[in-house]
Amino acid sequence: MREVKQFEISSYKYEFRNEKILLEIQSTSSEKILIEFSKEQKSPKNTGDYLITISKHLEYFPLIREMLTTEKPVYFNWVKDEQENINWTIGTGLEPIGIYDEDYQQIKLDPSFFYDELIQYMNQKGLETYIEEDRLIISFTYGNQEFLINVLYLNNWIDTGALIVSADDIPKDIDREKLYAKLLMDNLYIKEVNYGLTIDGDIIIHAETAIESFKFENFETEFGSVIYGIQNYVENIEPEFPSLKNVDHTSNWNLNPV
For 207, which of 33, 99, 147, 189 is 20 to 30 Å away at the CA? Predict the structure, then answer.
């Protein structure tokens, strides 16, 4: 028999215990629900008040920990079908932050979960930030040159990157083999700096954060590596290739290979 539970949350409290996360919810209908995220294999059960146990692979749940400490959950939906498969969502607004199956094999994230937080984060740093289609755009100026740093959610990764020079804008007098060799050597010898070439031939600086390990401390490190890559380009790469100094760094570029 298919079982569905939908709870609108009026208040909550949580506790972290080694390999468990315990979330106690008070619903708007005055029902109390205890949700236990655990590696232990158990079946959901009724105990007067409703207890939901979601088992296995707790290592996929830094997002829940992050959400509980930085966001306010407002609803919890839980469904068990005839084959005992469990699907659940937990949300902090009109949209869920995550949709998971019981084995956590599929993780989907509404980008608004971190976009709103990142906009506040960038505003604190005095960086102009806005949302454009599927990505966050941060304007960053260095050496009188404007770079647009893109942050987007793609295939369970948060990708942060900026265009260095598009394929069409690489000057004809540039020896591309020498330029690519310089970028590859900097990738090796400068820690946390990663230059790359897109499928369209655009040169970018990029960093990635796995969505299941997303924390703002991690993102700050990855964002900083993109900033450092831009600074290195302006200070050390452009002087070796002077005709790059006048190229535009604000053109659109595509990170998705398909």
Answer: 99
